[in-house]
Amino acid sequence: MNKIESRNVDFFYGSSQALKNINIAIKPNTVTALIGPSGCGKSTYLRLFNRMNDLIDNTRISGTVMIDDQDIYAKGVNVDSLRKKVGMVFQKPNPFPKTIFENVAYGLRVNGITDKKFITERVETSIKQVALWDEVKDKLKKSAFELSGGQQQRLCIARALAIQPSIILMDEPTSALDPISTAKIEALIYELKKEYTIVIVTHNMQQAGRVSDTTAFFYMGELIEYDNTKTLFTNPKIERTQNYITGRFG
Amino acid sequence: MKPFYKKFSEKFIEGLLMLSGTVTSLAVVLIVFFLFKEGVSVFNQEAVEEGYVVAVNKKNSADHISSEDLKNIYDQKITHWTPINGKPDSIVLFRLEDISNFYSDEQIGENFEGLPTCLSSVVDSLPDIIAFFPERYLAKNFKGKVLQVDKIKMSEFFGGKEWFPTAQPSAQLGVMPLILGTLWVSLGAILLALPLGLAAAVYMSEIANEKVRRVMKPLIELLAGIPSVVYGFFGLVIIVPLIQKTFQLPVGETGLAGSIILGIMALPTIITISEDAMRNTPRAMKEASLALGASKWQTIYKVVVPYSISGITAGAILGIGRAIGETMAVLMVTGNAAVIPHSILQPVRTIPATIAAELGEAPAGGLHYKALFALGCILFLITLFINLTVEFITGRNKHQKH
Amino acid sequence: MQLPDEHKLASSKKRKQAIAFWIFRIFSYAIIAILFSILSFITYKGFSAISWGFITQMPEEGMTKGGIFPAIIGTLYLVCGSMLFAFPIGVLAAIYMNEYVKDGIIKKIIKQMTNNLAGIPSIVFGLFGMSLFVNKLGFGDSIIAGSLTLGLLALPVVIRTTEEALKAVDDTFRQASLGLGASKWQTTSKVVIPIAFPNIITGLILSIGRVSGETAPILFTVAAYFLPKLPTSIFDQVMALPYHLYVISTSGTNIEESRPVAYGTALVLILIVLFANLLANALRKYFGKKVKMN
Q1: Residue B383: which of C34, C121, C277 has the nearest Cβ?
Q2: How far is it, in rounded angstroms, from Cα A170 to Cα A160?
C-alpha cells in the first residue's frame, strides 16, 4: 500500500503551468527527497500534499493526489483535518510569538484539545522526540524567539509532531541553518522515519543522498526521474539527471 | 578655478540642505517657546480683570484675597468676613453701579469727575465693605485699602471645576471640565472606532481578496482626506438632529455627537496603521499555523493579531491622539458647555474647541489670552506624550523582532 | 482523554470562522457606507447650489445668497502661499535626510523633531501662528501669516512623502552616477530627483488637498468672516473655504437660509480633496509604470 500517491497531476498558477503530469507513489515510513534547480516545481509539488497552495489565489490542480487511498482534493474533504494528518516544516524556522510551551501546544489547542494534563504530556513527548528537551526544559515559559536558529527549527518540528501526523513535509528545512544544526536535523529525520513518512525538498544533493530512501528529480515542472536514492545518484537513467547531480547545471 | 568653484558650490548646497533640514526642529522649538512663554505666564497673573481693583475699608485686617473667595463673595456664597480675616461681620458688597445709592448724579459729575472722591468716601465710611471698580476711578488719596488678589495657583488652574474666563470680578480658570470633556469625547470616539476599525483592518489584510482591497484602500484614504470642517458640518446637519430626536433631548449637540464624528475621523488612522502591521506578519508564520490544522480565523486571532499587537496598539493610540487634537468638528457638534459632563447626552467642551471659540475674543496679552495658551500647552503635552508612547511601543517591538 | 470528534470539531471551527468573517465584512462595508453617505448626502444637497455664479460671485444678503468667489480665491492664495514655503524647504530637508546626513544623532534628532511637528494638533499651530506671525512679527491677520502657519503644518507631510519617494530610488542609480565621477549634488539633482520626481509631485498634491481643508490654523491668522473684495497684498485678510463653511453653518446671520450655500461650500471642499486624491493616484499609476520601463 502506498502512503502518498499522485496520478497525472497538473498544476497552474493562473495560466502558467507549474507542474506537468506528475506520477509518484511513496511508501510508508520512507524518506523521499525532491530535488531540482530553483523554480522546477519541487516546493509547489510538496505543498500539494497538505493543500497549502489553496491559499494562493488563481491556482488550479488537475489529476488526483491520494493520501491513505483517499483523494485529498475530492469534494467534502476537510482541509483542517488533512493538515492535522500531514505536518509541515518550513524553510526558515518560524516559531509563533508565544512561549516555547505554547508553540508546541498550539496545534493541540486549535484542534479542540483542552485537557491540560494531556497537553503537558504531549508537549513534553514531542520536545523529547526532537532531542530538545534538555536544552529547553527549564525555560518552557520563555519566548521561542530566545532560542537559536537550530533550536527554533527543532522546536518547529516538535510543533508539527505534537498533533501526531503520519506524514511530515519538509521544505528545505536546513537551508537557513549552520552545519552543526543541519547535522542534528538530519539525524532527527533518520529517527523520525521509524514512525512517519517524510517528504523533503532540498537544494543540497549530499543531504538528499544522506537522508532519503528515494529521490525524485524535477526539472521545469516535470518529473524527470524517480528512483531509489542510491540508484539515482550512482546510476541515473536519464542524462539530464546525470548532469544535474554531477553539478553541470543547476 | 573650476574644481574650486565646483567644490564651493557643493559645500554651499550642502549647507542649504542642512539649513532646510533644521527647519522642522526650529519650528518645534519656536512653537514650544511661544506656547509656553504665554501659557506659563498665566501663573504670574492676578485673577482679576486688568484695570480693575478690589478695595476694602482701611480698618479691615485682610490684605490679600484668593480669586475663589472673591468670586464666592460676589456670588454671595460667602456673606461674612470670617474666612477672610476671621471677623464674623457680614460683608457689604459694592459694585460700581451701586454708587448711585450713595451719591446723586451731580455729585458724581457728568464725566464721572467726582467719582473717585465718592468711591473713596464710600469705602471709608463702611467698615465691612468690599468694592470692585475700575482702577482709573481710584482716587490719588484713596482712603480705603486696595486688596491684593492672589495670583492664579497651579492647583486652582488644574483642579478648578469652573471655566469662566470672563467672569467678574474674578476670572474662573479651572481646566478640569475641559480636560475631562476632551478625554470623555475622545474615549467615546475610540470605543466606537476601535471595533469597526480593527474589523476593517483584519478584513482588508487577511480576508478580502486583492481586488476588494484595491478598491477599499483609496476609499479609506479619501475618508482621511475629508476636511474636519466638513465632518463637523455633516455632524451638525445629520447626527445632531438625529440624536436630539432619538433621545428626546432639548439639544442634540452632545458629547455623543462629538464621539461619533471623531470616531469616524479616527477610523482611517486605526485602519491604515493596524492593517500595515498585520500585513507585516510573515507569510511563513501564517502558513505554519494553517499547516497545523488551524482554521483561517484561528490563525488570525492566535497568530496574526498577537504578532502585530504593537502596531495595532499604535494605531489605536494615534487614533486617540487624532481625536484629542481635533478642533473644528468637535467645536461644531458638542455644544461647548464648560461643565463637567455626567452623561454622554450632555453638551461638553474640549480643549481645542475652547481655544478656537474664545481666542478671537480674548485681548492679546490679557489673562484670558494667556489662559488659552496654557490650554494649548496642555494639549501639546498630551499629544507629545501620545506620540512618544507610540514611538516607544513600535520601536521596542522592532528591537525585539530582530 | 477523549479526543474531540473530528466532524463536530470541523463544523464548529467552520461555523465560528463564518460568523467572525461575516462580522468583519459587515463592519468593513459599514465604514464604506458611512463614507458614501457623507459624500452622497453633501453631493445631493450641494449639487443644486453649485452653479457658475456660485463660484464666481461675491456673497450677498448676509451670506445667504450669491457665491463664494472670495473664499475660493482666498483658499487658492493660502494654498499657493503655504506651498511656496513648505514645498521647497520640505523637499530640500528630505534630500538632506535621505541623501546627505549619515545615520547618527543629528539624523535622529531631525527625524524625531519632524515626527513631533507632525503630531502637533492644528489648533496649536493656530496659537503659534497668532503669537509669532500675527503679534510678534506684526503681520497682523494676513495672507502671509496664514500661509506660513499652514506651511509649517504641511512641512512634515511634504518631508515624509519626499523621503519615501527618494527611498524608492534604487541605490544602483546612485552608485552608477558616483562611479562615473559625478559629485554628490550632481548625482542627486540629475539622477535621483528626476527618478523620484513623480512621487514627490504626488506628495505635493496630497498636501495641497490637506492644506485647503484646514480651518483651525487660519482661524486667528488670516481668515475673515465676511470680506467681499479680493486681497491686494499679502498683508490683507482673506476669506477661506473651510472657515466660510464653519461660519455660515454655525454663526451666520441666518443659519437656516444660508444652508444651501453651506452645502455648496462643503461640496466644493470635498471636490478639491477628491480631485487631489484621484490626481495623486493617477500620477502614481502613470509614472509608476514609466519609471520602471526606463
Answers
A1: C121
A2: 10
> Over 50: is that where the pLDDT of C127 sits?
yes
Domain ranges (residues) in chain B: 52-151, 176-401
Contacts of A117 in chain C (CB under 8 A): 1
- The domain made up of B52-151 has a fold known as D-Maltodextrin-Binding Protein; domain 2 (3.40.190)
In the numeric block, the cell 474531540 is attached to: C4
**Binning pLDDT at 50, 70 and 90, where does residue B83 land?**
confident
Indicate the CATH number for domain A4-245: 3.40.50.300
The residues of A whose Cβ lies within 8 A of any Cβ of C are: 78, 80-81, 111-113, 115, 117-118
Contacts of C7 in chain A (CB under 8 A): 78
Q: Range of C215's domain? A: 69-158+206-268
Residue of B209, B210, B291 lying closest to A88 (CB–CB):
B291
Q: Lowest mean pLDDT of A76-85, B230-239, C163-172, C246-255, name the range.
A: C246-255
Number of structural domains (chain C) is 1
pTM of this structure: 0.87
Flag if A118 and C4 touch (Cβ within 8 Å).
no
Does the domain at B176-401 match CATH 3.50.50.60? Answer given as no
- Facing C273 at nearest CB: one of B27, B225, B271: B225
Count Cα atoms within 13 angstroms, Cβ side, for A66: 16
pLDDT tens digits along B120-177: 888 888 888 888 888 888 888 888 888 888 888 888 888 888 888 877 777 788 888 8
Task: Identify whether C192 is part of a domain.
Answer: no
The predicted-structure confidence for C128-185, as pLDDT tens digits, reads as follows: 999 999 988 988 889 999 999 999 999 999 999 999 999 988 888 898 888 888 888 8
Chain A residues within 8 A of C3 when measuring between CB atoms: 113
More confident site: C217 or C232: C217
User: What is the identity of the amino acid at B367?
Assistant: L
Residue C184 lies in a domain: no
Q: Do A81 and C10 touch (CB under 8 A)?
A: yes
Instruction: Tell me if C109 is assigned to some domain.
Output: yes
Residue C240 domain flag: yes
Q: Which residue of C has its CA nearest to A80?
A: C10
Which cell numbers in the block locate residue A168? 511530515
CA angle B276, B226, C164 (to 5 degrees): 40
**Chain A neighbors of B287, CB-CB under 8 A:** 52, 55, 88, 90, 94
